[in-house]
Specification:
Helix content is 57%, strand content 5%. The protein is mainly α. The chain has a three-stranded parallel β-sheet, with no helix packed on it. A two-stranded antiparallel sheet has the order 3-4. Helix 11 (240-261) packs antiparallel against helix 12 and helix 14 packs across helix 15 (359-368).
């Protein structure tokens, strides 16, 4: 089904004419054969020119896949509806219709590099390519439904992905100016889309890198797309967890220095300091291993993702590579520091030597430590 709309379009153009035979029997019913209520795939040009007479029925079809035909409500077999428009909707009445379209794509004019190919092509060539494509690529409705059912029931969504979605909506609605509204309906559809991405890429759960697709979903105007993409990329290589790990290590270092100042160590009762050191070393080693695996896997996750074109995947990969390498280097440094703390505590190294080996941690300990904790060390906290 393919049809252009104008502000003067009447429902008959999209949903079919009234059935004259049914009217003879005092039944108000449309003849929908060949029109949108019986279409599996549809294209509506200038979709945002829909008037109120068309809008209500169109909303029900898109949201509920149902159509009110006279005194009965019929199921619509629609699988995909593509809308095109030369302008974005400004009328508040059209915002509900705009929200029904999950994927949004801005199509720019042909570039200078591609204009020659456009001008040299002929309608016959375009027609032959379309015919060849339609002859080789046919999708059965039952197969698509089975695909959707399996993706919905078999694919897990990790907490980290749910967290990204929740924080993305909060960021867009509360921190962006002007705010970017994301409806509950759209957010739920995002989860379904991410599940489908994971399933069609042969995975059992959604990857946080699938969230890169949200840049095609979570915007209202084209200039907001980069804001969404930049935020998601930043979350994928966020330094927040690295800072938290350093904070944990600093806490362990502080307890270690206190214990060593009180004479504990390899031969003394340490109140669990040794186990704390061992735990932070284990956490950092596990995090480092995970980050290295992520770095090695990210290329395949992006370049082999069937939902990302090669060009887009390469751009994102380039955006991620340097920050990922930087984060790995930071965790490697933290692990080296933790192993140094472990060795110093196990060998009862004098505190002045610890200060030389780990000057930044020592400086933080002295500067921020309680006066009663550092008095036994014979050092006065800085700034006090």
């Amino acid at each position: 089904c393919q049809h252009p709309l104008t502000r003067f379009s009447v429902p008959e153009e999209l949903f079919g004419p009234l059935s004259l035979r049914a009217l003879e029997e005092d039944v108000y019913k449309r003849n929908t054969a060949g029109y949108l209520p019986e279409a599996q795939v549809a294209f509506i040009d200038e979709v945002f020119k829909a008037n109120s007479a068309v809008l209500n029925a169109l909303l029900m079809i898109l949201n509920e896949k149902r159509f009110d035909n006279g005194n009965e409500q019929v199921k619509v077999p629609l699988v995909c509806l593509v809308g095109a428009s030369n302008e974005l909707p400004q009328d508040p009445e059209l915002q509900a219709l705009y929200d029904r379209f999950l994927f949004r794509k801005m199509v720019n004019p042909v570039s200078d590099a591609g204009i020659s190919n456009l001008l040299s092509s002929t309608p016959a060539e375009a027609s032959s390519r379309a015919t060849a494509s339609s002859a080789t690529a046919k999708l059965e409705t039952a197969w698509l439904q089975d695909l959707a059912d399996k993706a919905r029931s078999e694919i897990a969504v990790p907490d980290k992905v749910i967290d990204i979605l929740a924080r993305l909506r909060s960021h867009l609605m509360n921190e962006c100016e002007p705010p970017i509204y994301i409806s509950d309906r759209r957010l739920l559809k995002c989860v379904g889309m991410l599940k489908m991405s994971a399933y069609t890429n042969g995975r059992a759960e959604v990857s946080e890198f699938d969230c890169l697709l949200l840049k095609h979903v979570c915007w209202s105007s084209p200039d907001e797309q980069d804001k969404v993409n930049d935020w998601i990329v930043d979350q994928l290589v966020s330094q927040t967890e690295t800072k938290q790990l350093r904070y944990l290590l600093l806490g362990v270092f502080t307890r270690c220095c206190k214990a060593m100042g009180n004479g504990a160590g390899a031969a003394g009762e340490d109140g669990g300091v040794a186990s704390d050191i061992e735990e932070i070393v284990e956490i950092l080693a596990g995090k480092l291993s995970s980050m290295r695996m992520q770095r090695d896997a990210v290329s395949g996750l992006l370049l082999e993702n069937v939902w990302l074109c090669r060009e887009e995947a390469e751009v994102v990969l380039e955006q991620l590579q340097n920050p990922l390498d930087k984060s790995i280097a930071q965790v490697e440094s933290l692990l080296e520091d933790a192993l140094t703390v472990e060795a110093c505590y196990g060998e009862s190294v004098p505190l002045y030597a610890v200060a030389d080996l780990l000057p930044e941690y020592w400086s933080d300990f002295i500067r921020k430590g309680d006066i009663e904790d550092v008095k036994p060390l014979g050092i006065k906290p800085l700034g006090k």
